[in-house]
C-alpha cells in the first residue's frame, strides 16, 4: 500500500456497546435513530461499501455484492469522547477513569477557571448550541464567557466576538488547558468564538481544541519514524496536539475539510491523509442533511483512488441525538474499507478495539507494529 485516506465522521455510531449501560447509553444507535427521525436516509455510496450489513437503518439497503469491506469497531478505552475515540483509532488506549463532573465543576475548580476567564456563565453539562441559545443574551450584557462541560475531561468556552476577540479567547483557552490538567483531569479545552444576536446565535468557523498529547505512542509516531507523509485535516490535528503530523490543516467546516482532502489526492502521493468531519453536531434534520451531503460527495473521491490506495470511513463514538445534552454515546462505529486493488464484500466482523484500525494502517504503510491492536490487512488482500 502507498496511501491511506481516513475519513473519521465524528459521532457516527451504529449501536450500543456491551458496556453502554455503564455510561447511561443502553439502547443508543445514532444512525438508526437519525434515519427514523428523518423518515429514512438515502446513502447510496455508503450503502455500496456495505453499510447495510452493519444493522437495520431505515432507507439503507443490504447490498448482495458490496464494493467495500465492512465491519464494526468497538472501543476499550475508559470514557467516550472525540479525544479518546481518535486516540484509540490511532492505537493509544486510555484505561484511566475520568473525574465525574456531571453535576458541574466544584467551587474550587470554578475559582481556578475564573482566575483565567474572569466571571463565567453556565458551569453545567450541556449541548453547545443549546447553551449559547439559553445564555447568549445574558452573556452579551454581563460580558462573562459561557462555560460548559461534557461531564468529564472536556471544558468548552464560548464568547461573542464583541466580548472577546477570537485570538484572545484562544489564548485564554490555551492557558486554561495548561493549568487544569492536574489535579483536575481536564485534558481538552475547546474555544468556540460566536457571533449573531438574540434568536440567531451561531458559532464562527474558527473553533480550536487545545488538548494534551496522547499518553502513549500512536500510528502517527510510528509512521513518522517510517518517513511517511502525514496530513491531518479538520480538528484531528488539535486532538493529537499536532504530534506526529507532517502538516495540519484546520478547516472552517466539515465541507471545507472534505474539499481539502478531495483537492490533495493528486498532490500527496503517499502516506496518510486523516480527516475529521463533524456531521452530527446539529439537530436531526441538519445531521441527516450533512450525512446525505457527505455521501453525495464521496464518489468523487472514490473515482480518484489509484492502485495502492486504501480508503476508510469510520467514526470516533456515537451521538444519539435523542439523548439529553446530546453528548457522545458509547457505541460501535462503522468500519467501511475500499481500494482499487482490495478485496470486496469481506465481512471484517466486530473488532474488539478501534486500535485494530491503527495497527492495519501501520502495517499497510510499513511502519513498526503498535503495542495494541490486531491488523486486518490480510483480510483486505484480493484473492
From TrEMBL:
GO terms for cellular component: cytosol. One of its GO terms (biological process) is metabolic compound salvage. Signal peptide: none annotated. It is an enzyme of class 5 (isomerase). Its EC number is 5.4.2.7. Keywords: Isomerase, Manganese, Metal-binding. It holds the Pfam family Metalloenzyme. The keyword Metal-binding applies. The keyword tRNA processing does not apply. One of its GO terms (molecular function) is phosphopentomutase activity. InterPro entries: Alkaline_phosphatase_core_sf (IPR017850), DeoB (IPR010045), Metalloenzyme (IPR006124), Phosphopentomutase_DeoB_cap_sf (IPR024052). Residues 284-366 form the Metalloenzyme domain. NCBIfam families: PRK05362.1. Belongs to the phosphopentomutase family. This is Phosphopentomutase. It comes from Nitrospira japonica.
Amino acid at each position: 500500500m502507498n496511501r491511506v485516506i481516513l475519513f473519521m465522521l465524528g459521532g457516527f455510531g451504529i449501536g450500543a456497546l456491551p458496556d453502554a449501560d455503564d455510561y447511561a447509553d443502553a439502547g443508543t444507535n445514532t444512525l438508526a435513530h437519525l434515519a427514523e427521525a428523518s423518515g429514512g436516509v438515502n446513502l447510496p455510496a455508503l450503502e455500496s461499501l456495505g453499510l447495510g450489513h452493519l444493522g437495520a437503518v431505515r432507507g439503507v439497503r443490504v447490498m448482495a455484492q458490496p464494493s467495500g469491506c465492512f465491519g464494526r469497531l468497538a472501543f476499550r478505552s475508559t470514557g467516550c469522547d472525540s479525544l479518546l475515540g481518535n486516540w484509540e483509532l490511532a492505537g493509544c488506549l486510555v484505561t484511566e477513569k475520568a473525574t465525574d463532573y456531571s453535576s458541574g465543576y466544584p467551587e474550587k475548580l470554578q475559582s481556578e477557571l475564573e482566575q483565567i476567564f474572569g466571571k463565567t456563565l453556565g458551569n453545567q453539562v450541556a449541548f453547545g448550541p443549546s447553551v449559547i441559545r439559553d445564555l447568549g443574551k445574558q452573556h452579551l450584557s454581563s460580558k462573562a464567557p459561557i462555560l460548559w462541560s461534557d461531564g468529564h475531561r472536556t471544558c468548552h468556552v464560548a464568547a461573542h466576538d464583541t466580548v472577546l476577540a477570537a485570538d484572545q479567547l484562544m489564548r485564554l483557552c490555551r492557558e486554561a488547558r495548561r493549568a487544569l490538567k492536574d489535579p483536575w483531569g481536564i485534558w481538552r479545552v475547546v474555544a468556540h468564538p460566536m457571533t449573531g444576536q438574540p434568536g440567531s446565535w451561531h458559532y464562527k468557523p474558527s473553533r480550536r481544541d487545545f488538548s494534551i498529547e496522547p499518553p502513549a505512542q500512536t500510528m502517527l509516531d510510528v509512521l513518522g519514524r517510517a518517513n511517511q507523509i502525514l496530513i491531518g485535516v479538520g480538528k484531528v490535528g488539535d486532538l493529537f496536539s499536532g504530534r506526529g503530523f507532517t502538516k495540519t490543516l484546520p478547516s472552517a467546516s466539515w465541507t471545507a475539510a472534505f474539499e481539502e482532502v478531495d483537492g490533495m489526492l493528486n498532490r500527496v502521493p503517499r502516506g496518510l491523509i486523516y480527516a475529521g468531519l463533524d456531521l452530527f453536531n446539529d439537530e436531526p434534520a441538519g445531521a441527516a442533511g450533512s450525512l446525505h451531503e457527505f455521501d453525495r460527495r464521496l464518489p468523487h473521491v472514490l473515482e480518484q483512488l489509484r492502485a495502492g490506495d486504501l480508503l476508510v470511513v469510520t467514526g470516533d463514538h456515537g451521538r444519539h441525538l435523542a439523548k439529553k445534552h446530546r453528548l457522545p454515546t458509547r457505541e460501535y462505529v462503522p468500519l467501511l474499507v475500499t481500494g482499487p486493488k482490495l478485496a470486496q464484500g469481506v465481512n471484517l466482523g466486530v473488532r474488539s478495539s478501534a486500535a485494530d484500525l491503527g495497527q492495519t494502517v501501520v502495517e499497510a504503510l510499513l511502519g513498526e507494529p503498535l503495542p495494541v491492536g490486531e491488523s486486518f490487512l490480510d483480510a483486505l488482500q484480493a484473492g
